[in-house]
## 1
Amino acid sequence: MSNKKILIAFFSMTKDYSFGKVERLVKGHTEQVADQIAEITGSDLYRINRTEALRPERAYEPKPIENFDEYDIIYLGYPIYYHTMPLQVSEFLKSYPFENKVIIPFTTHAGSGLGRSVAEIKETCKKSEVLDGLAVGSAEVQSAKQKIKDWALKSLAEAESR
Ligand SMILES: Cc1cc2nc3c(=O)[nH]c(=O)nc-3n(C[C@H](O)[C@H](O)[C@H](O)COP(=O)(O)O)c2cc1C
């Protein structure tokens, strides 16, 4: 296991969009990938987005990350919205001091792949390194487990060598 401190910060929303069908998709696609990476790497998970759920017990308000400085490696997960990351994720990147971190992006999407998102992360976080991202189609989140595992471990080894 890694000596470096790793955070998985993710935005995931689908379950809150599926009005009347909340039971159908208990977790968003990106959250499912984030969970898989957490299992593989044993790292902390942080949900970026507030969720205004249909049921109060499912609503979630993110608390600020108090020990952000301690994290060396940040897996950053989000769905693709309009060919890039959701606005809340851009705001997240601007609201923390992303200096001397290694950022590892991953996304779920419906056909756009990573879109412009990685270029946007590099533009916003100029003092951090941004590794190659992983794009997983929404429909292949469960069948891509091996691909996700291989990528997560390869990226981690690369991040640790920086
Ligand atoms: C507002 C909105 C905009 C979207 N724009 C795109 C897009 O430009 N390209 C794409 O491939 N998928 C797009 N999608 C599909 C999502 O990226 C995809 O369903 C993703 O897996 C959702 O992740 P989540 O379940 O973690 O929220 C969009 C979805 C929403 C809700």
Note: The pocket of flavin mononucleotide is lined by residues 12-14, 17, 28-31, 79-83, 108-112, 138 (CB under 6 Å).
## 2
Amino acid sequence: MSESVMTELKSVSPDIAIFFSRHPTVTNRASFASASSKKAKMAIVFRGEHMKAIPRLYFATAALFALIGMGWGIHMSATTDHTLSPAHGHLNLIGFVMMSVFGAYYALAPKAAAARLALIHYGLSVLTIIVLVPGIVFAINAEGEIMAKAGSVLAVLTMLVFLVTVLRNRAD
Ligand code: HEM
Ligand code: HEM
């Protein structure tokens, strides 16, 4: 990145300047340099790779959960022991299906993806899986229901954050 663009970037936002300097593949530098107002420059930055990282994060995590869930499914089929199938089902449904829907939403709604709430939402989604899935296993094995209950509350919170996000972000 040229010195002049970097200086201009620093005057708009030091944080974004640091981000651009660490991510040399960001594609929008030329249009950034030619944009007229500070608002236009920020819009270009947030339409860039910074924003696209959010849907990618959701989809990569969803694929990871799906791989674990499918491995679990194959193991259940191979052993013909389907006792834990609800845990497998919810790992796939919440971990893969729900997170993929969120990822698709953030890809369609760049403004929502640029908000700090998108990362909090991501953290809550992952935490739901980490608490709920073992929670279902413990509940099925009669080893306590507290984690399943906590996981359910987290799942509902995750969906509430999604509702707030959707309502907050209207089309421009
Ligand atoms: C390699 C892929 C998969 C294998 C081998 C597999 C295998 C299984 C098996 C053996 C059961 C138990 C069936 C029974 O007892 O009647 C099951 C249940 C289930 N699976 Fe999968 N599965 C796979 C992928 C998925 C995916 C991708 C999803 C969702 C997106 C999913 C959702 C479910 C659900 C909802 C149940 C029922 C859970 C319950 O009993 O409450 N599975 N699966
Ligand atoms: C707060 C979150 C959730 C809780 C507490 C919850 C709880 C449950 C429970 C207790 C069952 C019955 C399991 C059994 O028969 O042994 C069930 C079944 C099921 N859930 Fe959920 N669930 C949640 C979220 C979801 C979500 C987000 C999806 C879909 C994306 C989903 C899809 C299913 C399906 C397809 C079944 C039926 C599986 C079958 O036919 O055996 N659940 N869920």
Note: Residues 51-168 form one domain.
